[in-house]
Recover the amino acids of this structure.
């Protein structure tokens, strides 16, 4: 009978698997010897394997490209990184090497974008999707970006009064988005998301506040599911609800050309992880195309906001077992 931890792993999981391998009893993480790392730096230790970030981004881009080709999808795909997942400079530098865009959540994210621009790591043509509840400081910094010529800033309206801040502070035309307040899973503590505008109110809100306002161009409808993009009835129901709102809006709003399917992909947080990224992307693209075809409107550009998916599998924590306790 074998009772080592290594034997337990082999008996319980399909191992080694992507990102891990054994060579002469040495565990390698993305090709890097953990034994050598421990000998050099000791434990406990947190490490980041930066190339994994780029490979995750390219994986998503490749799968969307494949799905677009398979379904003859006419829109474009834009990969956005959520800065809240990791603000470290070495992370953002690696992310931006892969031709991606940025999603912000807080006022200080705008400071980060300014610094990246000063260092010539970020240019004014990239998309900046500004999400979250916005304080006066946050809206002021967003407006300053727009006024300074960052041409693809899209503040996503989280509530009905947010637009008033941009009416006062943005000098020229302003692209905006609207976030749908998704209905949470039945087991959640509250039924409707605290973020966004109720889907029943969006059409009326657009007609009253945006349609005849020459300052604003509605460009994006933002749909976010807190539990992420998963193959279950709840996700597909909420996606279809968002698509119905998009199609109704697009019929009266010719500037609307993008849908943001916020809510990230799950990541490998255990050796038992199993998720079919290829299937989910193909199915999402197909459902968007079918909804637009049914309503006789052009398909939208698709934006995603991947934070944990981008950086989550690039990190590892190393510890030393200092004792064994049996009870």
């Amino acid at each position: 009978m074998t009772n080592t931890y290594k034997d337990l792993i082999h008996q319980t999981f399909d191992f080694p698997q992507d990102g891990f391998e054994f060579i002469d009893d040495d565990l390698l993480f993305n090709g890097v010897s953990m034994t050598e790392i421990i000998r050099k730096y000791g434990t406990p230790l947190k490490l980041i394997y930066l190339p994994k970030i780029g490979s995750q981004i390219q994986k998503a881009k490749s799968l969307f490209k494949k799905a677009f080709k398979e379904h003859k999808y006419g829109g474009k795909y834009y990969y956005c990184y959520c800065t809240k997942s990791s603000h470290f400079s070495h992370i953002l530098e690696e992310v931006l090497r892969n031709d991606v865009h940025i999603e912000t959540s807080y006022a200080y994210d705008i400071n980060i974008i300014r610094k990246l621009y000063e260092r010539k790591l970020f240019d004014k043509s990239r998309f900046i999707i500004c999400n979250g509840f916005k304080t006066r400081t946050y809206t002021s910094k967003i407006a300053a970006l727009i006024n300074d010529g960052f041409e693809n800033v899209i503040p996503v309206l989280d509530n009905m009064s947010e637009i008033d801040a941009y009416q006062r502070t943005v000098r020229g035309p302003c692209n905006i988005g609207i976030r749908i307040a998704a209905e949470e899973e039945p087991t959640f503590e509250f039924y409707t998301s605290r973020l966004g505008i109720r889907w029943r109110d969006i059409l009326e809100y657009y007609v009253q506040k945006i349609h005849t306002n020459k300052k604003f161009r509605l460009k994006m409808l933002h749909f976010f599911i807190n539990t992420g993009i998963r193959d279950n009835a709840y996700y597909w129901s909420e996606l279809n609800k968002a698509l119905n709102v998009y199609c109704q809006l697009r019929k009266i709003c010719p500037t609307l050309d993008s849908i943001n399917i916020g809510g990230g992909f799950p990541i490998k947080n255990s050796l038992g992880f199993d998720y079919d990224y290829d299937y989910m992307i193909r199915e999402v693209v197909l459902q968007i195309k079918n909804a637009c075809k049914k309503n006789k409107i052009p398909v939208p550009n698709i934006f995603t906001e991947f934070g944990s998916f981008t950086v989550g599998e690039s990190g590892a924590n190393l510890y030393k077992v200092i004792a064994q306790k049996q009870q």
User: Anything to note?
Assistant: Residues 84 and 105 are 7 Å apart (CA to CA). The first strand starts at residue 20 and ends at 23. The first helix runs from residue 5 to 12. The radius of gyration is 22 Å.
